[in-house]
Write the structure tokens for this entry.
Amino acid sequence: MWSDWNSAEILNDFVQMNEAGLDLVRFFLFTPDFVKQGQIDPNQLAHYKTVLAHLKTANLQGIPTLFVGHMSGQNYRVAGWDESTFFTDPIVLQQQKDFISAILNASKESKHIAGWCLSNEIPNDFPGKSAAEVTGWFTEISNFIKTSDSRPLTIGDGVWSPEITGIGRQNNLEPSNHYKLRELAPLQDILGVHFYPRYDDYWPQAYTSGFRILMAGSWKQEIFLEEFGHSTAMGSEKNQALYYREVIFSALQAGATAALNWCWTDFEKTDLRPYLHNTFENRFGLRRTDGSFRPALNEMQELASLSQELSANNWELAPRDSYLIIPSNFYHPLPFDWDRDTDEKYDLYLHTYGALASSGALPMCIHEPGVDHRSQDLHICFTHNASFVLTPAILWLPALKRLSAPFWEQILKNVDLGGVLYTSFANDHWVVDLDKTMGIESHLRFGLPDFYPTETMLISSPCGWGPFQNLMLSIHLGSLKNLRSLAYLPAEARSAKVLLEDSEGRPILVKKGRGQGAIYFSLFPFEMLMMHSCDEELRGIVTMVYAAIREENESAGSSCYSAAAEFLRFRRNHETKEYLFNHAWEPRAFEVRLEDKKKTNKTIRVELPPKSFCEVVDTTELGSQIKLEHSQVA
């Protein structure tokens, strides 16, 4: 907009945003337009001041994005700013500071700057030669800004870091290995998450919003959804609206303070790169080219209205009720590790989160501190500090494989104090004294996986445990049963109680008391199978396991025995208000067991259309299984 300046059009857009109920706009200072031959273009600086005036007129808050070389699938460069100079060249660094100073000085009196974003998805443009180079530059620039301006700062990298996406995940849109969140988070006042998930199955896409925000929340409490979007070139307008509803609902329940979509309006730029080849970029807007609005805008308005209404009536998000543990080898490689599953870990934890959310759990993520291995000495150095509070908690740890001894001891100490650990077996694990800890006697062999003997597993509960009482459930393994990552643990229960077993009496899920707490151990890696199979019935079974553990340990809030759910839960004094979302693309019926401190086992059936939600209401006074049918609250 800077080189093709139209002041009236920008003001009109801002006024329409305000009239549509939007209150925050992130806009790009396209750097090649602002910095030419190392100098600030005075015309563009004047245009920027006009934009600030337009924000005031329209009563909008803005987030200027300072270094914009990547946009819409294209990298644009300021002359002299390239991979070899951007982070380290002192002349370029001075030019960058001069640019920032000019923008800060022009913004001093403005009351309509909500904060600063340093870049737009900068890993795509400047991946850096090393983490030290990247962190060093952001440290220099963020400190420079903070010496003269106190407004919140985020760096605009999308939180595309190994701590979020994992070291083994291959994604050419997120070249992030040198952007270490453990080093960059302390430089920021708030983290801004970006994602555009594409999968062969609805489940991981549906839970990406909540999962990414919670993964980032392990490193800083203040999070916002800085960018998400859906081009109508790649999906219908109706489904764009449903996607907006899903993403914003999940972001709200995960604690995001704001959600910004990409982008405001459609346009026609078919004679300009990259839009002449990335044609889908022309159709991300809330507003069509004819000036009318798409249904997605209504979803933003309605969810914003719901959030504001709840806040005005003193409802607050319920606190997170458990921990999803992320082992350090997810983001920080161990020396000489032969682990073959590194590229699966992100999807493993994402699928696990989906089942936890379905069960009614509100987990927060916690990353195990990694051990920095050095060849020159024996000094022990951890990547960061992390500890559980002494208050006992429910801990979820799928595919128990690699943990440092101090962190494993911390987990067990929490159990001793009354906490609860759920974990599942992983082939090639390094956990010492596993049999003793789990109360079993296993027949594990070094280097050799044990594959489940048949393609179908029938499970039931010999003790009538929770929702599995009087049930015989079938799990189809098929050809997947011979995947090494799906090997199971043949064993007999010794001091552990068998909660689930197969049709041959093999223990599948056991419970072992420890101190004042308990450990639940699955001898089959159901989370890995859930990830590989995309089997909806299996997702339902895993959801039931998690829900049963929550109920047995009196977790707050309702629980659900059906897959594809997610709860948005609020508290006000001793009151609870809950909303239930259906993430599936078809109508679903959910069996919900209400939060019930009197232990009267109140259960209701909730029927919801695709990608819709409703408030969970106790209707049991009218009948034990009352059907609720609401498309959405908003």
In short: The two ends are 34 Å apart (CA to CA). The chain has 15 helices and 32 strands. Residues 152 and 193 are 15 Å apart (CA to CA).
